[in-house]
């Protein structure tokens, strides 16, 4: 699939060299089974790139599960990822499969991976290295065949220096680095995105589409857009 076809399929708008480069990396690495670390600011579209990697891979008919590591409480994250046995902790009234078991043969997208607790990072490293995991409350080793695409907007080398992230896990996740550019890094795409969003909202609410004067276009271009594409759409 060409980059133009990928853009059409996933609704990606823009022609900046940095965006084209990121799409090309995603397309090339998809054919492999390598672990990918997607970096970029909040709202820049990191999950879309994880979906591209999955859909262009041999695993496309398998499951794709997106996990927001920062939204799951520390006390339950191991159970969510690796499952648990009945009675392994208070409230565990029945055994449960974790995402790594459910997603066997597919792809797991670990968003905000830098938020994982250190003990969970150890478990994740073992899965990446051997494909093995143990459910919470079990002693039985299980195998899984899952591709991991991780993402973060945190500077992981800084987190490593502060003792918040394992260096060996970072190198294992960062087999293929993929940087999603911020809107500030691809200013030439801002007006294209605005016109698309304005047209979509005009059609949805049956209103005339907005047209910007040159001065307004310049304001859009000069703004920092800390929330990136998500903020522009809102």
CATH architecture of the largest domain: 3-Layer(aba) Sandwich
The CATH first-level class of the largest domain comes to Alpha Beta
DSSP helix fraction: 40-55%
Distance between the termini: 30 Å
Taking strands numbered 1, 2, ... along the chain, how are they ordered across the largest sheet?
2-3-6-1-7
Number of domains: 2
Structural class by sheet pairing and helices: alpha/beta
Strand content: 5-15%
Low-confidence spans: pLDDT under 50, at least 5 residues?
A: none
Query: Mean pLDDT, as a whole number?
Result: 94
What sequence of helices (H) and strands (E) makes up the elements?
HHEHEHHEHEEEHHEHHH
**Which value, in Å, is the CA radius of gyration?**
20 Å
Number of strands: 7
* Number of H- or I-type helical stretches: 11
CATH homologous superfamily of the largest domain? P-loop containing nucleotide triphosphate hydrolases
Biggest sheet overview: 5 strands, parallel
Could you please say which CATH topology of the largest domain applies here? Rossmann fold
Categorize the overall geometry: elongated
